[in-house]
Amino acid sequence: MHLMDFVALAAELDASDELRSFRSEFAPIEEGLLYLDGNSLGIPPKASLVRAAEAAAEWQHHLVRGWSEWMHIPARIGGRIASLIGARAGEVVISDSTTVNLYKLVNAALDLRPDRNVIVTDDENFPSDLYVLQGIARTRGVQLEIVQIEPDADRVAAVLCRLGPDVALLTLSHVTFKSGWIYPMQAMTRATHEAGALVLWDLSHAVGAVPVELNKADADFAIGCTYKYLNGGPGAPAFLYVREDLITQCQSPINGWMGQRDPFRFGLKYDPNPDISRFMVGTPSILSIAAIEPGVEMVQRAGIDRIRAKSKRLTDLMVQLWEAELKDIGFALRSPREAENRGGHVSLGHPDALSIDLALINDAKLIPDFREPDNLRLGISPLTTSFADVVEASRRIRAVVKDGRAANYAGARPHVT
Ligand SMILES: *Cc1c(COP(=O)(O)O)cnc(C)c1O
Predict the structure, then answer these.
(1) Active-site residues: which are they?
(2) Neighbour tally for 349: CB within 10 Å
(3) Which of 73, 93, 263, 299 has the most CB atoms in a 10 Å sphere around its CB?
(4) For residue range 296-351, what is the model confidence (pLDDT) as tens digits?
(5) Distance 171 CA to ligand 1 centre (A)
(6) Which of 100, 102, 125, 126 for a ligand 1 pocket mutation test, highest count of atoms within 8 Å of Cβ?
(7) Residue 62 to residue 65: CA distance in whole angstroms
(8) Cβ proximity of 293 and 301 under 8 Å
(9) How far apart are CA 108 and CA 96, in angstroms?
């Protein structure tokens, strides 16, 4: 297929896209800019900017009295997120960052398996997750096993074969941040339970992009971001999930007053709340949390099945474009070929991926991102990306390689990618 055929195909797909009207609900971005990094930081919904301003005005008018309402916000928005991840409302709360939530829930999980001393994860887990696990291994004296998996190997089998009577916890990203591979949550949770271990899923790259069924899978613990496909804003607080029956069986290792049974009694002895809020720590970030809700509401309204269907078509188109337009100039497909196994982004390997990334951002008005060692990552967020955008992105990528703009950045080393 030639580029013009792709342009025509994209026009057809855009014309029949049931979700296309959602684009107008997002705040306008710079003219001509193609944004393929919604999996790192989503574009602001117009309603979130309004909500953020309202929240600031509530602060101004209510002052400390605002807390009688604000106290309920983390659980209320947690309940909305629960509906996106197949959980019950009382199992999810907004709290802290994803990283901190991982620390809390891994410790809580290890307390439930005192006679086992191994945590298993894989080499595609997010580095912050791996660092937290390394820290916990050091401070608790448990062993961390990071399963290394060859690109073409059977990832599921490689992970599952490490389960055994010494394993307390398996923790994985449901959709991995680099390749976008999706682990089969239900089958792996079942296998983990059969081995007597608990499971914790990081949903950061899954929530808002793929259907998640925590209850159906009988998942024990989960955490995730709100600023990626949920468009909650830079540094928006994260969420955590604990299965209903486990909530009162375990505790946070950080005993903060927001996890306390009646924090405003200011009791001197820690007595954790009997509900999911026992995993909260300190005062919630009300201004940031306020901006999360409109993006969550939008995903609910669009429907995760329709979002996923569009996402598969978008990433399929990107894979076809890679084959027709980018393979011959040195790009390798680093994401699964089958849409079924792939989340919302496509990673392309290239020896000059970093300089290509910089040329795209600085000279071609396309924002993807670069992930070590040589991945150009294209986040194709379904509510903000059209099929025409995908074709145009591929055209710009090819152009910066062919016309030498990428070569100008050889050797550059930015601080943030
Ligand atoms: C983005 C991401 C995080 C980020 O965690 P923060 O604490 O919000 O910085 C963690 N885990 C995964 C899998 C991610 O994709």
Answers:
(1) 126, 202, 227-228, 377
(2) 17
(3) 93
(4) 999 999 999 999 999 999 999 999 999 999 999 999 999 999 999 999 999 999 99
(5) 14
(6) 126
(7) 5
(8) no
(9) 16
Residue identifier of the C-alpha nearest atom 4 of ligand 1: 98
The CA distances from residue 414 to 35, 127, 370, 394, 409, in Å, are: 19, 18, 11, 23, 10
Task: Tell the residue number behind the tokens 């096993």, with chain if given.
Answer: 145
What the block records as the tokens of 358 is 């910089």
pLDDT in tens, 156-180: 999 999 999 999 999 999 999 999 9
Distance (Å, rounded) from C-alpha 58 to C-alpha 80?
Answer: 22
Cβ neighbours, 10 Å, residue 199: 23
Cβ atoms of residues 228 and 217 within 8 Å: no
Is the distance from CB of 185 to CB of 211 less than 8 angstroms? no
Please tell me the pTM assigned to this model. Answer: 0.97
What 3-state class would DSSP assign to 85? Answer: coil
Give, using CA atoms, the residue closest to atom 14 of ligand 1.
204
Q: Hey, what are 377's tokens?
A: 């990552």
Q: Rounded CA gap, 211 and 217, in Å?
A: 12
Q: Output the CA torsion sign for 203, 208, 209, 213.
A: positive
Pocket of ligand 1 (CB under 6 A): 97-99, 126, 128-129, 173, 177, 202, 204-205, 225, 238
Distance CA 234, CA 328 (A): 37
> Within 10 A of 239 (CB to CB), how many other CB atoms are there?
32
